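Sanity check. The docking grid for magnesium ion depends on where the pocket ends up, so I'm generating a full predicted complex first rather than guessing from homology. Inputs follow.
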Amino acid sequence: MRRKIKRKLRVIVLVQTNLIPPDTLDGVENKEKELWRTEYDVVSTLRGMGHEVWPVEVRSDLGVIREAIEEHKPHVAFNLLEEFDGYPLFDQHMVSYLELKKQNYTGCNPLGLTLTHDKTLTKKILAYHRIQVPRFAVFRLNRKVRRPNRLRFPLFVKSVSDEGSVGISQASIVRDDEKLKERVEFIHRQNQTHALVEEYIEGREIYVGVIGNLKLQAYTPWELVMTNLPEGSQNIATGKAKWDVEYQKKIGLVTQPAKLEPQLRIEFERLSKRIYRILGLSGYARIDYRFTQHGRLYVLEVNPNPQIAHNEDFADSAEHCGVKYQALLQKIMTLGMSYDPMG
Ligand SMILES: Nc1ncnc2c1ncn2[C@@H]1O[C@H](COP(=O)(O)OP(=O)(O)O)[C@@H](O)[C@H]1O
Ligand SMILES: [Mg+2]
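Predicted complex below; grid placement will be based on this.
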């Protein structure tokens, strides 16, 4: 059998300030590694596949991207950016810049990024399409906290725009007006953003990865399970649960294929692809749900360009569908090279 010869690609990998990974892991502490694990996995895997790879650190100047494009003439820019100069909502502008430069890139297009970065706008669009989302209200900075009647306790308080569960803990679930006020003020003070208050949805926490531009594939629904949660705690993905490895061990946190009836798994996958289309996404994304004991699916959040470190949820769920890490990165690049911003 003849081996399929893969084209060697020239790839620039766009990474955030201070996230250029080292060439080897020798002598590196685990904690330090956490910071640039995705960058390291992507760069080292692409190199291992024989591609020519240049990491480009983007700080506060698009000039470095322009220079890298001119110097390396990359087939594709692998986009690992989640912010620009410290502003999480500005990554969409950099992707717009790549489009203006006629540079192919991986991941989501500017419109998809813009719509999904705004968690309230996402929910409004989905509600129009009769997809279930928690009821919500925004409590703006420097305004009085007054709960609209339609919002019933228990409620969940988070930042309207921050990601990565910053500001989310067990205290985010509030059961009366006094606690609501306290927690909204906490988000205003700590996160320095408006607060998003949603109805708290009790249920299982399920994530679905979707990949594609026109033809879409959904990966196996993945469940976040806490097997050793202390009495009275709820199974929510707090900042600690996401980032503190010791705490993860303590609460017995695992992510695994969600045990679902086949019909339900299909429903999750279908709905995820539908949401991806409605929001005009491209590349790859992960949709976060809560699944109640009455069998209702609520969309919590839509994440374009989700975390793609090796052995994290997205890559794991791809592998569960037979797509190994190398093949996954190759597919992400192929999609990037075939995406046509003009339609
Ligand atoms: N309305 C809600 N009901 C129940 N749990 C919620 C709700 N909103 C957020 N959570 C919990 O908080 C986690 C983080 O919230 P999310 O909106 O996804 O923000 P982030 O962008 O920080 O991931 C979720 O994964 C879920 O566990
Ligand atoms: Mg989330």
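Relevant for the grid: Residues 114-132+202-338 form a domain with the D-amino Acid Aminotransferase; Chain A, domain 1 fold (CATH 3.30.470.20).
Also worth noting: Residues 304 and 326 are 20 Å apart (CA to CA).
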